[in-house]
From TrEMBL, chain B:
Pfam families membership: Proton_antipo_M
Entry's family note: Belongs to the complex I subunit 4 family.
Main location: membrane
Superkingdom to which the source organism belongs: Bacteria
Keyword list, A-Z: Membrane, Transmembrane, Transmembrane helix
Organism from which the protein derives: Chryseolinea lacunae
Name the record gives this protein: NADH-quinone oxidoreductase subunit M
Amino acid sequence: MTPLDTLQAHSSFFVICLGGALALPLLSFLLCFYVSEKYSWATSVLAPFLMMASTVCAAVVLYQAWNHPAFTWQRVWFSIADHTFTAGIHVNNASALMLFVVTGVSFLVHVYSIGYMAGDTALRRYFAMLGFFTFSMLGIVVSDNLLLIFVFWELVGFSSYMLIGHWNESPAAAEASKRAFIINRVGDAGFLIGLMLVWTHGHTFNIEALRALPLDPAWMTAASLCIFCGVVGKSAQFPLFTWLPDAMEGPTPVSALIHAATMVTAGVFLLGRAHFLFTPAALNVVAITGAITALLGAFAALSQHDIKKVLAYSTMSQLGLMVAAMGAGAPEAALLHLFTHAFFKACLFLSAGSIIHALHQAQHQSHVNFDVQDIRLLGGLRKKLPFTFIMFVVSGSALAGLPLFSGFLSKDAILAALVHWSNTGDAWHWVVLLVVALVSFVTVLYTFRLVWTIFNGEEKSTASLVVSEPPVVMRAPMAVLALASVWIWFSWNPFSFSGWIYNHIGAAKDFHGGFVSMASAAWVLLALAVAYASRGRKLDSRLLAQGFYVDLFSRKAIEQPTLQLADLTHRADKKWIDGFLHATAYAQVIVANLTGWFDRAIVDGFVDGAAGLAKSIGSFTRSFQGGKIQLYIFWAAFAIIIFIIWTLL
Amino acid sequence: MQPYLISLLIFIPLLAAFLGLFLPATSTTSFRTLALTANVLQVIVLVVMLSHFHPGGLQLVELKPWITLNMGSWGVLKASYFVGVDGLSLPLVALAVFVLLVATVSSWKITENVKGYFILLLILNGAIIGSFTALDFLLFYLFFEFMLLPMFFLIAIWGGPRREYASIKFFLYTLLGSVLILIVLIALYVSVQEPSGSAPLVHSFNLLHMADASNFIPHALLDPHHISKLGPLSFRAWAFLLLVIGFGIKLPMVPLHTWLPDAHVEAPTPISVILAALLLKIGGYGLARIAFPIFPEAAIDLGWFVGLLGVISIIYGGLNAMASKDLKRLIAYSSVSHMGFVLLGLSSLTAEGTAGAVYQMFSHGLISAMLFLLAGVLSDRTANRTIAHYSGLATKMPTYTAFVLIAFFASLGLPGFSGFIAEVMIFLGAFKSSSVGGPLHESLAIIATSGLVIGAAYYLWTMQRMFFGVFNLKGQMSPEQLPDLNRREYIMLVPLAVAVLVFGIFPQPVLSIIDPYAQHFAEFVLRSGKSITP
């Protein structure tokens, strides 16, 4: 499509709105730093306002771009020789929808943060980084080439680093932010190798141009798997997931936005964008990785005690489901789950934040201290926090995949796709399907356990506290997100996932999900019954609580050896290289001393000896010239005698 | 005016140094003014130069006879005053002028023996610009050696506690490098004649003539048409290796790098800045200007070895940075790691890799200047740079922390900063190398990516240890010693931070200067190297 066609297909109003949606978060970032420290409260008005404007723009973009030809815009970024590196925008259905979801959730989280972060000393940095994060995330969503995606990919990693470590005086937060960035960097190094492969063999980074290339397994398998490394890092897949539970040290709204709704789903989104690069062999790896992640996350969530860690492992598990769906060749199912998950998981996090916030306030007033995030200390909060309870139940139901909620539809789509995939492919595909079914079962268990422990039964540590619901700026975003967790937004029919989104975000395949959706409804209800029956049971497993010791393993098997290697190189520098130099220097000094000695003792000795010899000969002969006449006569006589003897003989 | 621009750039500081001799030693301000005036004049000349420069080949060339000695049957020795700039040297000259200005401002802290200090600084200034612009090997060598002495005294007199050790080490190391380069210089002098070819034989030091295989005297030592061998390698390959070692010491390249951390730790802040931002670049510049074009077939044959040394430098330097306990030593080792990318990019013999290498030199000049200034901020306040002695500085010095954060992330190659552009292009070039006939295997680029992870690890670990956590000091320091940045420091750091950001987002202006050179370099070395190989 030529640029002219694009111009005709998209009004200038559309372009302005797109520009606004992208630029306003960046503007928010810049302005928040510009505000003086004295008026830092102003950022909590400014930033949400700008984000609202951005959301409105994104809504217009979504409305106008939906089911239209993709909008593209391209400029040369820089060029070397005859290679041009472009920067461009590509907005199709999926990216327009993602644009709206990201700005929307970001806006809600901004509003929520007004209440949650009130009184924070670094409010400017907080809102600035939220703005910057949103901008970078939108960059990933709309970029039309892999290099630019990589740029924003790293930038979201940076903003994630800044936001996890927002309370950097806490050593745990500082540690978590560092680990998150480094683990992501490991994945990104793989991503970069993928870029090198693409550049060497495809000669371009432009996604549409790459799509036009013939499928060539010779390099595409390797390239796509390398790009998948980046996805494994960013979307917390096995084995690079350990940073996600640690990242819960960040403020809870950040967890909702970055570590649930948007950034971690960037990997899934990228899989959707670059799906054509993945050869069947590569897709198998993707599917297996996703299934393993989903399984590990779901079981680890079962025995966590920290409310946010349960949600973190749950996020990891859901991301695994999306990745598995991608691997099974069903990007539209994965993307549908991405969108539904963005809303209900953000709502769950905000509800958890609401509990944390309310209990912290109460603790402040009554000077009691306990870990408000430890669910073993909570209970019976239904009466004190009724609104939060409802929110939690609604979004939890969506997570569990109960019928009439959004999660049911998207999980159904994934299951239907997997059933289709298992029917058509190798036998081991069934294992993946079974794992996913098991995961959806366990999801119900841990969600139920979470809701039950926090809200039902007797109050424990909170009994004496006067707890009140958080302010309306926090409740309203939760309500909006909870509302977005019901089925109606995604499909008219609560039992059929093929609604307006599913059918238009990719080459949707209709899997005749009727049977699957009945089965999955029954399956989920069975899980609910099991969960209720076993509500009192505790699953105390160190293996699960520690996230299968992957973290421990990486510390012992990778980190410590690296540090030892670093120490070794340091010693090598000091001992071997410098040691060699010093030895050379000493050797030279010794040689110099030797030559010095040689000079003094031998050369000088010889010279001095010669001089001494001459002197002693001189003084000997001088002794002849005694000045006494008797001596001269004696020597003369002596000489004559000698002469006579000599001549006679 | 235009033909003398480069000479002006070289001789303004030298003239200022000469004037300085007549100023009273007691007047600190007069020397500061003198140095600053010279720098500002250089900036003006640079701006005029940039306005006259059009992306393309050598420009602003000045060619004057310098030494012509008739040696009878030995021919004529001819060295010229031959200077000019192209896509390789112009970015580095611009960098030098900018960084030297910053270094002068940073020298405000020097209070003892100001006269000697500023005169040496100005001599160093002229020598650096001269090295980057000389196109005659003898002239280059002269400037190259000329840098050594001021640097030695600047470290040995104004340095830290172990300055004598560090300066001697620096001097001996660099001298060794110079000697190796001198050997090649003489061998080339003997082997190359002026293109005219008529009697009498004119031996030339012209670098452009040396890069042309047809100018070699038949059967001379380094004649590419009649390659004679010494052991496993040809004489030309040995000469190439000598140059790689000679310039590698300057770069510095593992395992010839151990002078750098010591020199940096002991040098005063402005000297560290010049050392890291400019002097190291002369190593990379020398390889690109002299070693690769004159011995192209050796560059193809031994390119893998240079690339391997680059990868080793990247990883080894990074690991050493991780184990460093002193902030300045850490930054010094990070320089070793980043200069490894230059080796990797150059030896790829692709346009991307070459452009990336030049861009990396330019970008690392800005970033390392910033890093060493930031380390200097701590040295100035407490004379203590031990990482373990600080924690939670973010609460005490927020602005300082913000700049450190910018510099660290710029250095670890975050997109949006200039280092990213350079490193990406180097990676792309190094990986692509073998598919276009270059010498590097793909695995080198793949292994080098681990440098990205190591870089993130040591910077963020330092961030965590020194700046995050609860504010706490050890080692007999008091919080009053640590005020946040002052105006002078701000003035130095802001332009650097802005430059690093601008060149990271809009690389095209600099790249369009580098591009013709990079294309020509990669194409020339590959083509003429292939034509020489028997």
